[in-house]
Design brief:
Blueprint: H1 2-38, H2 42-55, H3 60-72, H4 76-89, H5 94-106
Amino acid sequence: GGDAGTVHLDEAAQIHRVHRVVRALVDHLQDLAAADQRQGELQAAESELGELLRLKPDFLKAHIRLGEVRFRQGRIADAIASLEQALRIDPSRDDIRQDVQRLRAIR
C-alpha cells in the first residue's frame, strides 16, 4: 500500500515543480518585456508579452504593458483592445478606463 502514497507524492512534487517553473518563466518574460519596452524594442516586447499572456491570461499588468507597447507602435485599436481586456480583469481601474477614452478620442 505504500507505493500508492509515494506515487501521489511524486505527482504532487512534479506539479509543484511545474508551477515553480511557470512562475519563473512568467517573471523572466515580464523582465524581458519591460527591458525591451524601455529600449524601444517594441516588437520583441510584444512577442514576450504574448507568451506571458498565454501562460497567465489574467495578468493585468501584462495587458496594460501590451496596450502601452501597441500605442507606441501607433496601433491605437489594438492598444484599446489590450486595455479593455485589462478592464475586464479589474473593472475598478478608472485610470485604465480614462486611458481607453483618451485613445478612442484620437483614433
